Amino acid sequence: MKNLELWWVTGAQLLYGGDAVVQVDKHSKEMVAGLNAGGVIPIPIVYKGTANSSKEVETVMKEANNNPQCVGIITWMHTFSPAKMWIKGLQALQKPLLHFHTQYNAEIPWATMDMDFMNLNQSAHGDREFGHICAHLRKPRKVVSGYWKDPVAQQHIAVWARVAAAWADAQDMRILRFGDQMNNVAVTDGDKVEAEVRMGYHVDYYPVSNLMEYYKHVTDQEVDELVETYKQLYTIKIDECGETVYWEKVRNAARAEIAIRRVLKDEGAKGFTTNFDDLGQVDVNDPHFLGLDQIPGLASQRLMAEGYGFGAEGDWKSAALYRTVWYMTQGLDGGCSFLEDYTLHFDGARSAILQSHMLEICPLIAANKPRLEVHFLGIGIRKEQTARLVFDSKTGSGVTATVIDLGNRFRLIVGDVECIEPKPLPKLPVANALWIPQPNFEIGTEAWILAGGTHHSCMSYAITPEYWEDYAEIAGIEMLHIDKNTTIESFKKELRFNEVYYLLNRSVQM
User: How many other C-beta atoms are found inside a 10 Å radius of the C-beta of residue 155?
Assistant: First the structure.
């Protein structure tokens, strides 16, 4: 993110004279320098000067659109900046917008304040004028209100900055589907054209046969080197398969990881999906047989930790969403992962959902050093021993999210969860997380199901729902948040109100 930029534009005018604008320019530079020095906002802010006319506003907005380093615009109205001069610029702007309602001075100097001071400190005046024109134009934006030196205000800007960067990353996001999706599954499908129009990412089918061409060209030396890395990072645990089969399967997993990473790099892709019904040639009696021994679980786990998006069973929406979660949380503690609702645990107030998948859970959420194990997996087109990382997830509060396609719109569903410690699973050797959906199991699950939420989601310990609010605002998609205050009565009303809103909005557009 250090290679990206946020542009700061100060709204002004020449009504108060050139000297006043010079002073405002000085204040703006000091404020931007202070924000950059604060260490809270992860992306450098670049001051682009005062905008004193419609032409100046339009020029800087168009420059932002055409600059790949700029991921968003921060505006501040030091004084009464006539809003009509912002119309053409705001209409042209295609980058995320944050309106910072702040002021250079923290306190009113009661005993000495004169009109000169007033002319230089009129944000209470100017920001409302700017807010009005944004509302009139229905311009999506985030509004942050607070003193510019306040860490709380800076943190709100930091959240938006991370989301804006992830949004920019999504605009050239390519997802490869190794094979297609599972037959007849609805939630992993959707309108890929509209997803690219609305959210930026492009989804392509990629033949597993092409992947296998990469697979067979991976050298034994490359495999040996990666296996040594596994030995350093993970606890080696050889169980019922025996040592010979164990290392054979681990080496196959390493070969698959190298091959997939190579494909993603060569294709310029940021994410991928797999499908355990498509693993390469099926006939093992064929002397030219070449295929994966099972779904590439270990490879998926490790590639997620590197930041590649992943979705199981062809779920391209989850693959793209995971990439966005990972991108937003770079440098933050906690970790994130693709997860699936696996099985339910009824225990009164501690009723919970076990989250897992066949194999593919990201080790960034592991509570302790993962174990590298090899076990039989009897699902899909090929039933074989295969390698995976096994661990329990961390405990603590998290936020999980999924995107669904409702035909006339995309809906982002966000749920607060509390991850608790599971009991041992000696006969289920997979990574897992056990969480209680908020406000409790019954309401959390009922609301998720009523909203149409998928069995796949992307969870993070590092972010708050504010991140997803900003993302939905930038993307122009619906968002529903299930939290400690959710009731089924109010949630059903929100669903009905949203349905009417989007039907009316679609009618207006048509």
Answer: 17
Nearest to 404 by CA among 474, 478, 463, 327: 478
Q: What is the DSSP letter of 407?
A: S
For residues 241 and 385, what is the distance between their CA atoms, to the nearest angstrom?
8
Strand partners for 45: 6
Structure-token pair, residue 471? 């993302």
The pLDDT tens digits for 66-122 are: 999 999 999 999 866 788 999 999 999 999 999 999 999 999 999 998 888 887 788
Question: What is the DSSP secondary-structure string of 353-376?
Answer: EEEE-SS---GGGBSSPPEEEEEE
Q: Token match 């590197």: residue?
A: 306
Rounded to whole angstroms, the Cα distance separating 488 from 486 reads: 7
Please tell me the total number of residues recorded for the chain in this structure: 510
Residue 232: both structure tokens together: 């350093």
**pLDDT tens-digit readout, 442-476:** 999 999 999 999 999 999 999 999 999 999 999 99
CA distance 84 to 97: 17
What are the Cα distances from residue 95, in Å, to 6, 72, 171, 214? 10, 5, 11, 38
Q: What one-letter code names the amino acid at 187?
A: V
Distance from CA of residue 450 to its chain's centroid?
A: 23
Widest Cα–Cα separation across the chain: 93
3-state secondary structure of 227: helix
Give the C-alpha separation, 365 to 392, whole Å.
Answer: 8
- Reply yes or no on whether the pLDDT at 17 is more than 80: no
Buried b vs exposed e over 46-76: b needs ≥16 C-beta within 10 Å? ebbbbbbeeebbbbbbeebeeeeebbbbbbb
**Nearest partner of 298 among 241, 229, 244, 399, judged by Cα:** 229
- Quote the CA–CA distance of 510 and 500 in Å, as a whole number: 15
Q: What amino acid is encoded at 1 in this protein?
A: M
Phi, psi of 226 (to 5 degrees): -70, -40
Residue 276 has what DSSP assignment? T
Rounded CA separation 48/318 (Å)? 37
CA separation for the pair 384, 392 (Å, rounded): 24
CB atoms within 10 A of CB 333: 7
